[in-house]
Write a structure and sequence with these properties.
The chain is mainly alpha-helical and 377 residues long. 47% of the residues lie in helices and 9% in strands. It is built from nine helices and seven strands, in the order H-E-E-E-H-H-H-H-H-E-E-E-E-H-H-H. Keywords: Membrane, Transmembrane, Transmembrane helix.
Amino acid sequence: MSSEVEEEERRPLIGHDLGSSILIVHQNEDTISICPLPQSNPTDTSSLSLPNQRLSSLDVFRGLTVALMILVDNVGRAFPSLNHSPWFGVTLADFVMPFFLFVVGVSIGLVFKKVSSKPNATKKVISRTLKLFLLGLLLQGGYFHGHGKLTYGVDLSKIRWLGVLQRISIGYFFASISEIWLVNHNILVDSPAGFVRKYSIQWMFSILLCSVYLCLLYGLYVPNWKFKHSNLLSSSDSSHLSIIQNVHCEVRGSLEPPCNVVGFIDRLILGEDHMYQRPVYIRTKECSVNSPDYGPLPPDSPGWCLAPFDPEGILSSLMAAITCFMGLQYGHIIVHLQGHKQRVLLWSVFSFSLLLIGYILEILVFQECLYQKHCTH
């Protein structure tokens, strides 16, 4: 058994042919350090080491994701088809956040291939999560008032608690903790059955998160609610009149902007003053005459068009963490398989399986929406 473990440790994680006599001596982030071993003494690691081997494909994908983010941020307003979807549907911009979360998951699979001390690893994960969350709070919480204003500071009564970096930190935390505590690192992956045994508890945890999300999304009752907004059409020079707008819901399972569970939980826990005040659904046909671009409100627009909604809310961030778990499993394939054909084959199997599940869920949700008359698409 010990000889098999030693042989497993000597296998390269990246698909470069460096010979059979190599030993992995360090691994940090998505960087892998390897040392060649002389044939005469395979246990001597004092020989000259090769430079750190980075997973180039992951670096390239990360760079392309950043380039895509810059593209949609700067061109999205000129070409609304590249901007985020107003509500239902998907556009090119909607792939940016999942790509970032996927990259985080793959990196976690490389970082925690071996965990020498679970408590120490957990402390590092918590520290990095808090730093990333606080950085996002500083950048997106309202501390900076705008690019054209030389003012800063924050009103704690209106600070936005969640955002893009906060969502990434949440996904990183769940995926990393599961990789540290829910994976049996003593199991040798020498067969498909061994792969399943090693990560089965982690898979069940991710399925549990999905189940909690779906149960809340379709089972939680959303009551009527109201919000306060300023009357921007007021002729007052000094201040705007505040208007209380009532929104009628009293439904379960609605996916429409005003009555979905995601917004209900955020309003209940965060409060409407701590949510994103310019939601993406303001570009829908009900709320913009220039849909899918921004524009004036139509004459018969519903009152909820001016209601706040956080695209990186609590429940949606919980589900976004599943994207990190997807990247984590793809990272496991990189770790345990050296042949590119084998990797591509397993990646394709997982990808088409997830695509099929997505289509099935879309059909079921679409039929449910037609039955309840909650959807308009």
